[in-house]
Amino acid sequence: MRLFGRKRKDPEKTIYAAVTPQDDGTTAIDVRGQTCPGYLLAINQAMDSLEHGTTAKLLVDYPPCGDDVRAWCDEKGYRFLDFAQETENWAIIVQK
């Protein structure tokens, strides 16, 4: 146990999105394991790299993010298409 000194940075707490093109023309953006505001920052950065008109499937495991992403889409001018629970996570479908 560390009582004094600097805390070590936890590698699981970094802001990161795994961006994977899918066979159906969509792009999966996986931010599972992150909470607010990290997942939203990671989604924003990943979406910036996509072409206009691209549909993205955001994979999240933090339930409150649906409302956050809906508001973020309104601000960015993206279309919020769907929010559905899958087996162990949620999928949010947005279009840039």
Automatic annotation (TrEMBL):
GO terms, molecular function: transferase activity
UniProt keywords, alphabetically: Transferase
The UniProt record lists the keyword Isomerase: no
KW Iron-sulfur (keyword) present: no
Ranges that cross the membrane: none
Residue ranges of every copy of the UPF0033 domain listed in the record: 29-96
Superkingdom to which the source organism belongs: Bacteria
Similarity-based family: Belongs to the sulfur carrier protein TusA family.
Name by which UniProt lists this protein: TusA-related sulfurtransferase
Protein source organism: Thiohalorhabdus denitrificans
